[in-house]
Design a protein that fits this description.
Helices cover 69% and strands 3% of the residues. The chain has helices spanning 5-12, 16-23, 31-41, 52-105, 110-138, 169-190, and strands at 151-153, 160-162. 7% of the residues are buried. It folds into two domains: 5-49, no CATH class; 76-190. Helix 4 (52-105) runs antiparallel to helix 5 and helix 5 packs antiparallel against helix 6 (169-190). It has a two-stranded antiparallel ribbon with strand order 1-2. The radius of gyration is 29 Å and the shape is elongated. The longest helix has 54 residues, at 52-105. By secondary structure, the chain is mostly helical. Strand 1 (151-153) and strand 2 form a beta hairpin.
Length: 191
Amino acid sequence: MGKTQQNVADELFLTRQSLSNWENGENFPDIPTLIELSNYYGFSLDTIKGDEYLIKQVKKDYEYLIKQVKKDYELINFKKANKKYSLTLTILLVIIMLMAISMSIFRFSTPVTKFLTIILLILSSVLILLSYKFLKFVYKDYKGDKNAPLWVSKAFGYGISINPYHKSGKYILIVLIIIIFTLFGWTIYSM
C-alpha cells in the first residue's frame, strides 16, 4: 500500500514498535486489533488460519478477553447489588430507629404500642434476612471453601463481619437471629 509503519500506526492508533514486532514474529496482535488490521489491509482472516502458532495465540487472547469481560460484568453487578443492598438496609434501619424513638417519646395506647412493636419486629426481621442475604452475596467467593475465615472485612464501611460460608459462621448468625426474635417476642408478650 506504499505506507510506512508509522503511517499505519498513526491511522490505527498503534505504536510503530508494535507493528514492527508483529512483522518480525516477536508477538502477535490481539483479536480486535487483528480484525482492524484485516479491515485496513483488506484481507480475510481465513488467510492466517494455517499458522498454528498465530491461531493458538489468538485463542489465548480470546479466552483472556472473555475472562476479563466476565470479571468486568461481575464487578458491575457487585457494585449495583452493593448499592441496592446498602440503600435498602439504610432505609430500613432509619425507619426502625424512627419508630423506636417515636415509641419512646410519645405515649401510645396499649393496642397501638403492640401494633407498632409487631411492625418493628417485621421490619427488623426483613432487615436481618436482607443483611444475611447480602453477606452471602458479598462473600460468595468463599462458598465451598473449607478454609474460609470466620471473620471478614465488612462489605462496606469499616470493621469486620461474620462470614456466612464459614462452618461456624452460619450457626452464629442463626443464633443471633433467634436471640433477636426471642427478645422481640418477649417484648410483645410482656406488654
